[in-house]
Amino acid sequence: MDKxxxxxxxxxLEARDWVLAKxxxxxxxxxxxxxxxxxxxxPNLAMVLPAMDYINQMFVNGITDTDNLDSAxxxxxxxxxxxxxxxxSVTDFSEFCTPCYKLKYFKTANWExxxxxxx
Length: 119
Description:
Helix content: over 70%
Number of domains: 1
Number of helices: 6
Mean pLDDT: 80
Number of strands: 0
Oligomer: single chain
């Protein structure tokens, strides 16, 4: 059938589309909450890094949840995690990321002494 004759029916979601949408809801809620957190107040490095750690952990949890999430969601989370890691690595070059802030963050995040020394 010609798509022009289908009208809006051509955009009807199939069963798999609904499954993906439902799975995305919990992931997008975490990102919405993080966005609102950053918009609420002027974020500083002490706020941003732990929030990035939390988001990263949510991505890791989603990537490893092979029982409940579709492979398309796993792939999207992998890309999102790589993007987050890129921005996390950029903080090393920030003028606001001074050693005293980093050391405090590392200790608060319970990093191992060896990791702190390497960083």
